[in-house]
Specification:
The chain contains 4 helices and 4 strands, in the order βαβαβαβα. By secondary structure, the chain is of the alpha/beta class. The protein has a 4-stranded parallel sheet with strand order 3-2-1-4, with helices on both faces. α2 links the parallel β2 and β3. α1 runs parallel beside α2. The longest helix has 11 residues. The radius of gyration is 14 Å and the shape is globular.
Length: about 120
């Protein structure tokens, strides 16, 4: 099963590196990561691109860019429109997840026959 992690990005320069590294470092290997650039005014996307360029799992990341700031809901919708996963996980760009987060959630969803 493929899990898509959607990360909207807007003015989160102090946090985006840790957030992105936590997504890229998942123990569950079958993931797609979508960053949605919502046209912030800081260097969040420059930091994200630097992290992606240096990471061995960079092939997991797709970047979608808005033409202008549209807000969190629109950024999440852009992620949904791009997602190809069986499940979608929304990760705020100022948060980070444990390395086994997706693995644990997917295991629980499968064991409990969740489809939501």
């Amino acid at each position: 099963m493929l899990v898509t992690i959607v990360i909207p990005v807007y003015n989160v320069a102090p946090y985006i590196e840790r957030c992105l590294l936590s997504a890229l470092g998942q123990t569950y290997p079958n993931i797609q990561i979508i960053l949605v650039d919502d046209c912030g005014t800081d260097n969040s996307m420059n930091i994200a691109r630097r992290v992606i360029d240096k990471h061995p799992n960079s092939h997991l990341v797709t970047i979608k860019e808005h033409e202008h700031n549209k807000g969190l809901s629109a950024a999440r919708n852009t992620g949904i429109d791009t997602a190809i996963g069986d499940y979608i996980y929304f990760l705020d760009s100022d948060d980070e997840i444990s390395e086994n987060c997706i693995e644990k959630l997917l295991k629980s969803a499968i064991e409990n026959n969740c489809d939501f």
